[in-house]
Design goal:
Elements: H1 4-14, H2 19-28, E1 32-36, H3 45-56, E2 60-63, H4 70-79, E3 84-89, H5 94-107, E4 114-119, H6 126-132, E5 136-138, H7 144-159
Parallel strand pairs: 1-2, 1-3, 3-4, 4-5
Helix pairs in contact: 3-7, 4-5
């Protein structure tokens, strides 16, 4: 993938920088988004459309492919130094998969990644998912621009020192 070596070199070079310089560097680098399809759901057309829209909006997108386990997704988020992870779940397994992914992120000390969810999510489940730490949930009918704008805003907020 073009740019991956450059991004890795940039990450390596920021390790020795003071935090204020590292923060400025992060605000300049492309937003990195992992798009993942956890579980046994075999429908990935929507995830691919979102991945392409994010890429076309200037983000660096890592698409994991189908049938990813929570452990694989979290490992990818860490390895790719992602700013955000978007989970696409159409199977109805969101109340099992999302809590496990959140748990694994917490166990690994990953607290600076924006977690979003898309798919067929019943309205009754949304409050509990947000309480778990999902930043936003996009259901069928959400526009790609709405998703792009949300990710940009949430990542910018995450990168801004408090």
């Amino acid at each position: 993938m073009e740019g991956t070596a450059d991004a890795a070199a940039e990450r390596d070079s920021t390790d020795a920088e003071p935090s204020s310089e590292r923060a400025r560097g992060q605000s300049r680098r492309k937003i990195r988004v992992v798009v993942a399809k956890p579980g046994l759901d075999g429908h990935d057309r929507g995830a691919k459309i979102i991945a392409r829209a994010l890429r076309d909006a200037g983000m660096e997108v890592i698409y994991t492919g189908l049938h990813q386990t929570p452990d694989q997704i979290v490992a990818t988020v860490i390895q790719e130094d992602a700013d955000a992870v978007g989970l696409s779940i159409l199977s109805g397994a969101h109340m099992t998969l999302v809590p496990r992914i959140v748990e694994l992120l917490e166990e690994q000390g990953v607290d600076d990644v924006v977690l979003i969810l898309g798919g067929t999510i019943p309205a009754d489940d949304i409050p509990e998912l947000k309480e778990l730490g999902v930043s936003e949930i996009f259901t069928p009918g959400s526009s790609t621009q709405e998703i792009i704008d949300f990710i940009r805003g949430a990542v910018q907020e995450q990168r801004t020192p408090s």
